[in-house]
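ok so for the tutorial part 2 we go from a plain amino acid sequence to predicted structure tokens. step 1 is just haveing the sequence, like this:
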Amino acid sequence: MDTHIADDKLAELHVEELVVKANDRNVERYDIDPVAEKKLLRKLDWRVVPVLWFLYMLAFLDRTNIGTSMRSPFARNAKIQGLTKDLKMTGNDYNIALMIFFP
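step 2 — the prediction. this is what the tokens look like for a chain of 103 residues:
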């Protein structure tokens, strides 16, 4: 039992020492130019947003192909096309799969 108390005291000392070391660091603070920051954010927006939009649209098309029936003979509902038979779905399996795709 004494070793457990001694271990706790050592752990407390170690934690206190870590806190002191973390506070003693000489960390320089950088002043960011607001114009350069806006320029960087604009550049990131022009590169990241179109990629995210494209991925969102692909996910949307995939979900609508599975979830809804369309009037086009080439894009029909997955359930009508035989998805439930191919995947051996029974009961509410198809509805559960739709709930996953359409949160």
